[in-house]
Each structure stands twice: as C-alpha cells, then as structure tokens.
Amino acid sequence: MRSTPVGPWLRLWGAYVRWTSRWPALAALVPFVPVVVLWAVVAESGIFPRVFFPGPLEVIQSFGKLMYNGILPAYLEDSVVRLAAGTAVGMALGIPIGLLVGLSDRAHRLLWPILLFFQAIGDIAWLPILLIWFGFGLGTMTFVIVYTVLFPVVLNTVLGVRSVPIELHRAAQSLGASRARVVWEVVLPGALPNIITGLRNGLGYGWRALIAAEMIVGTSGVGFLMFDARRAGSVVEIMLGMIVLGILWYIVDSWVLAPIERATGQRWGLVTR
Amino acid sequence: MGTGDTVKKLTIENLAKTYFDPFAGTQVTAIRDISLEVGAGDFVSVVGPSGCGKTTMLNMIAGFLPASGGQIRVDGRPVSGPGPDRGVVFQSFALFPWRTVLDNVAFGPKMRGIPKAKRHEIAREYLELAGLAHAAERYPNELSGGMQQRVGVVRALANEPDVLLMDEPFASVDAQTRMTLQEELTRIWQERRPTVVFITHDVAEAVFLANRVVVLSKGAVLADVPVALPRPRAWHSLIEDDAFKSLSSQVLQLVRSA
Amino acid sequence: MRRHSRLLAAVSFTLPLIGLLVAWEAIVRAFDVNPRIFPAIGPVLQAGIDALRDGTLIAHIGASLARIAIGTVIGIVLAVPLGIVMGVSPAVSTFFTPLLRFFSVLAGIAWIPIATLWFGYGFGAITFVIFNAVFFVVAYNTLLGVTSIPMALRNAAASLGAGPWQVFVEVLLPGALPNIVTGIRTGLGFAWRGLIAAEMIATNVGLGYMLFVARDFYRTEVIVLGMIIIGLLWLAIDRLLLAPLERATIERWGLVRAA
Question: Which of residues A216 and C65 earns the better pLDDT score?
Fold first, then answer.
C-alpha cells in the first residue's frame, strides 16, 4: 500500500539498512568514521601538545613507513606466531585436562581448587620466576601464553562437559559405545560450544599477556614496538601499535571466533553463556 | 452498554499510521482510518486478521507509537506518550523480574508518590481480588504463566487507569489456564467496571469477554457488533448457548471476509 | 544446616591446596632443589615475616590495592550511567556498540606505554590503566545489558506512570545489572593483570614491582611469596566481592544473562 512518496533522505536510509543487513561488517565500520574525524580535529586544534596527541594522518604515515621498511610485518609475525603456538599448546593441554576434571568427580574435587588458585595468580606474575628459569627468550613467552590460555580453556571445558545431559551418555552406552567412544562422540561435541567460549576468553587474556611479556621481556613483537617507542618518546608508533592490535583482535574475535561460537551453539541447539 | 455520557471515555478520530519500510523502500500504511468511541465501563474486544492494525492501534492509544494522522482522546484530553491514565497488560506479562509480586503491583502507586505502607495496602487489596494474596512475596520467575498474567492485570488495575488496554494478554498461556483467566477477568470487570479495550485474534474469546466487538480490516473499522449476552459469563454454559454460538460465527464470518 | 555446608565447602576447597603445600615441600626436599630455582616453604615464610616487619609488604600490598580500588570505583561510577544512556535509544546504541566494543577489546595492558607517556611513571599511569580496563569493559557490557531489556518492560513502566528518571532507576539499572556484573568481573580481571604488568614496568612500589625487583637479586623466595599473595588476593576479590554480587543479582532474580 503506497501513500506518500518517499523523500531522498528516507531512500538513503533504506539503502543503508538493506546494505548493512547483507554485510553487517559495514555497520561496524560506519561509527568509526566520525570518531576518526573527531580525532583529527582534536589533534589539529592543538589542545594537547602534538608530542602527546598526534593525528590520524601521522599514524597512517608511520604505518606506511614501518610497513615499507619491514619492521611492522616482522614484529606482527613474531607476535602472531607466539600467540598461535602458545594457544595451540594451551588447547592441546587444556581440553584433555578439562575432560578429565569434568568427567571424574574425584579429579574435580582434587584439582578444581588448585586450578582456581593457579588461575588467580595470573599469567603475568609468573614472568619474574620464568626469567630466572628460562632467561629472556622464547621459552618464557611461550610458557606465559600457554599458562594464560590454559585456564579459561580448562574451566570452560569442564563447564561444557558437565552440561552434557546424562541421558546422552546413557543413550550412547545403550547403543553400544565404549567409554572412550562416549567421550569422543558425545561429550566432546556436546562441550564444543563451551570449549570455543574458553578459547575466546583464553585468547582475550592471551594476547594481553603476550603484549605484557613483550613489553617486559621482549626483543620483538608489537608489545616491544610500543614499549620501545615509549622509551624513544614516539607517541605515533605507540598509537599505531594500539590501533593495529585493536583492529586485529576485533577482526579475529568478532568475525571469526564469535560466529564459530554462535554457529556451534545454535546449530546444535545448545545455549552458550 | 456504554452510558449516555456526553464526553466518551475514549475517542479515536480518523486515526492513521504510516511508517517507512527500509526493505521495501516505500511507506507502508498500517492504519488507514479508524474512528471509534468507547464509553465509561465498556468492554470492547477488537478482532481482525493478522496485519489489520489492531496491535498498532493499541500501541498508539497507549502512547508507545505516535500517530501519523487523526487524534486519540481520553476523557477529552488528547493522548501524547504513555501515562498512568491508560494501563496496559502485555502479552509477555512484562513483570519486573527483580521485584516481588507485591512490589510489582505497588509500582504504579509508587510512581504516583504514595507512601510505602499505603501502597502495599493497595497492592494487597488488588492481589486479593485476583486470588494471589499468598504469592505476594514471590518473584515473578517463581510463578506459572497464568499467575504471572493475573499479576499483570491487577498491576495495571491498581493504578486505577481511565482505560485498560489489553494486548492479546492470554495468547502466551495454555488453553485451560486461558479459560480460567477469561472467567476471572469478567468477574474482576464486573466488580470494578474499568473501561477495557481488549485485542485478540481469538473470536470466541472476544465474544465471551465483551459487550461490544469491533472488527478491523486493512487498517479500518469493518463492523461494530454489540454483545448482549447475560452476565456473569461461564464457559460451561456459554459454550452450548445458541446466542453465543451465532454471535461467534457472525463475527468469525466478518473476520474471514476481511 | 546452611552454615554446616558452607564450612564443609570451605574445608574441601582448602584441602587440595594444603595437599599442594605438602607436595611442594616434599619435592623440594627430595630433589634437593636449588633454592634459587625454587625455595622451600620455610624461606618463603621467613621472607614474608621479614617484609611484614620492615613494613615493605604492607606498603606494596597497600599500593596495589589502593590503585585497583580507585581505578575500579571511578571506572564503574563513570561507565554505568554512560552505558545506560547510550543504550536507551536503538539508534544511539547501534552507533556506539562497535566503538565501545573496539575499545573494550583493547582495554588495559595495551595502554601502558601511552599511559606512562601521558602521566609519567607512577600512581597516575597505573591507575589510568586500571580505570581504562574497567571503564570500557563495563560500559560495553552495560550497553549490551540495556539493549537486551525487553521493550515491554520499559513500556510497562511508562504506562504505570514512571517518568524518565524513574525508568532509569527502576527498570534500566536493575535490568542491565546482570550484564554490568559480568562486565565488572571481566574488567576487573583485565585490570588486575594490567596492574601487575604496569607495576613491573612503571613504578617503585607495589606487588608487581616487588616481584620484578626480587628477580634482579635472585631472591626467588620473595617472588614465590609475592605470587602466592597475588593469588590469594585475587581469590579473595573473587569469592568475597564478585561471587556474592553475582549471587545477589543474577541468581536471585532468575535472569538469564545475555551472551
């Protein structure tokens, strides 16, 4: 039913809604435009000294320079590789431990308080003692990331394992599955949404631990880049580092991890926290 | 039947509503032209096929949506925005989960600034009316759907609104509970005689409850059918009653032809 | 009885930890571990007593707790109203959600270098990092919480006569509370880690500093002491502050937290 003709602004709005519902990524980008503009205006106005508050153009220039001379790609690669390696080990250790603690009441009673306590100590507090044990190097950093990723993965895996209804265990067993197969065919898939939540949380803490470790201990990586720039007093590179980190993690979390989490949860009709 | 008041409780004049649909890229007409008068103490049921505009109309009377044309007046005063003079009962119950049943019912009086002792007294009185005095200290999530909606009804009534608007209030409840709630509603209405506008897609429910059934179609009033069945009304007697059956089928024909 | 089961729970919680202590002492003795690599319980306790006696332990703990308390309180006080205001209108909340999400994703540790540049070394920079972590995460979660409140609840309040301020206090705040509490938990987690990291780099008092300087002198027993204290402090925050908060709000009202 048509009544009044639609004005040009409304037509524009209609086009915007249609586009962003097909490509939600667009909707995520739009709000940043005025923010960047505001940033440029504030920086130009000189309210804060340029030394402390550079504008977006300077950051982009620095980005270009660091990309060109290869420093940024190299540091990024270092950071990402460390994070990926640590995460892989963390998952490889964490999921089995989580399965064990989740499935066995005795293991749970014995280990749960210990897990909570060690998680409470936190990853970064381990750095000094790790430096004494392994010195300044890859070993220290990998340990920290593995430690950081381990606990959320274990805790969430336990949650997921315990949330699989007992009827599913029983159904599998009365269909002839051995204990091992029950774990592989029922418990693991059932806990998968929670495991992915654990991975998400673990990575969230993990990249922060990585940056901290690179600042305190590192010789390369984005955290080191920012810390070194701080020592040289170069704000532009600090901001560049932060923005690169933010964009990277935003992309990984929103467009890779969250959809996977939702897909496994929804696909199998499970509720994720 | 409505009394012979010169100022009707609720007047709707040439109400119209259009909105912009970004996916179609055009303006869509939800309501073409509705004019309606409701007298004090009337119980009006509004029925119609999906998309006929009945929920939109209710939202506009309640003040949740602005009108694109026409006017709505309560006791002669034009409506703009929600307010305690138009109480609403929601399909989803909309009870505040962080407040007890008693505090939920006392909410309206609290907004009017009535002190705690007095408003708790008022709330208990209304809970008594709905037979829920024993549930006063419970939280909504501890109650069944039927009980929650009874709380919803008396919460709106406790505020003594000029008009009580009910938006398919029993649609989320199972069939048995629904019949019980319908009978309770008529009992409460007979005791308190609020002015009620009741939206439903269930024709039998509409006829059971009301003394007037308005049929909407494509955004306008199609028919206005008086219901002169005696009160009190009970399902076990009415379900076999010839007058009820013929009225129901008459309204049903109207809705289907809409 | 309630108290009986609480006591039982506390005991069964500490029992494995005591077992850990026993295992620790046993391993160190059995393998004759170099005290520089890992001390026995005795030296750690001694270091603790010494540090208590000369007041340094109190100073470090006090500094860390002060920073986290101030940063967290200011962060919450500013973030909650802001998050609610941003969440009220669908258009505004759609606009701010990606922005707040970006900043909450970045919150905490990544701000250490720029914080020390802006505020110099010391209390200001560290408290800023803590504030930053709490503020963005809580604001983002508050925003999510408000947008998840069913419109019917807000309409119900309005049609019962609530004005805008009353809707804020009676509907928006309680309705968003579960998400706010989740945000506080996450933000505090980031803030705590940011605190320790920042204290290692940017100051000369605090638990992080205590750990880092002990490393320079190979005083492993001080490091282990510090780690245990950090663990106990966080457990205390979690069990004594966060868990009761979550119990009082989320579980009591039977609300389901939105993801």
Answer: C65
Q: Which residues of C touch A250 (CB under 8 A)?
A: 101-102, 105
Count of domains forming chain B = 2
CATH fold of C41-46+59-253, please?
MetI-like fold (1.10.3720)
Same domain, B111 and B155: yes
Q: Report chain C residues whose CB lies below 8 A from the CB of A114.
A: 16-17, 20
Q: Is B1 a domain residue?
A: no
The answer to whether residues B105 and B136 belong to one domain is: yes
In a domain, B136, yes or no: yes
Give the count of Cβ contacts less than 8 A between chain B and C: 76
Tell me the residue range of the domain where B109 lies.
97-160
Domain ranges of chain C: 41-46+59-253
In a domain, B155, yes or no: yes
The span from the CA of A112 to the CA of A161, in Å, is 14
Give the model's pLDDT for residue B7.
67
pLDDT value at A260 more than 90: no
The whole-number pLDDT of residue C28 equals 87
What per-residue confidence (pLDDT) applies to A180? 86
Of C159, C166, C249, the CB nearest to B88: C159
Residue of C nearest to A216 (CA): C201
Query: Radius of gyration (Cα) for chain B, nearest Å?
Result: 18
| C52: number of Cβ within 10 Å | 12
Same structural domain, B63 and B186: yes
- Is the per-residue pLDDT at C51 higher than 50? yes
Q: What is the CATH number of the domain that holds A222?
A: 1.10.3720.10
Q: Do the Cβ atoms of A214 and A141 come closer than 8 Å?
A: yes
Residues A33 and A166 in one domain: no
Average pLDDT over chain C, rounded to whole? Answer: 89
How much is the pLDDT for A271? 45
Same domain, A110 and A237: yes
Question: Are B25 and A14 in contact (CB < 8 Å)?
Answer: yes
A122 in Cβ contact with C234 (< 8 Å)? yes
Alpha helices (runs of H) in C89-217, residue ranges in sequence order: 90-106, 112-119, 123-147, 151-159, 164-167, 173-201, 207-216
Q: How confident is the model at residue B12, as a pLDDT?
A: 93
A70 pLDDT tier (thresholds 50, 70, 90): confident
pLDDT value at position B8?
81
The reported pTM is 0.86
Is the same domain home to B186 and B253?
yes
Among A3, A17, A18, the residue with its CB nearest the CB of B27 is A3
d(CA B79, CA B221): 20
Closest CA–CA distance from residue C40 to any residue of chain A (Å): 15
Residue with the bigger pLDDT between B107 and B50: it is B107
- How many helices and strands in chain B, by DSSP H and E? 9, 10
Weakest mean pLDDT among A17-26, A210-219, B62-71: A17-26
d(CA C105, CA C88): 22
Claim to verify: residue A16 and residue A94 sit in the same structural domain: no
pLDDT of residue B78: 92
- Its domain, for residue A40, covers 8-45
When pLDDT is averaged across residues B112-121 and rounded to a whole number, the result is 94
| Residue in C149, C160, C169, C250 to test binding to B, most B beta-carbons within 10 Å | C160
Tell whether B112 lies on the interface with C, counting CB pairs under 8 A: yes
In a domain, B174, yes or no: yes
Q: Which of C153, C162, C255 sits opposite B111 (nearest CB)?
A: C162
Contact B92, B50 (CB under 8 A): no
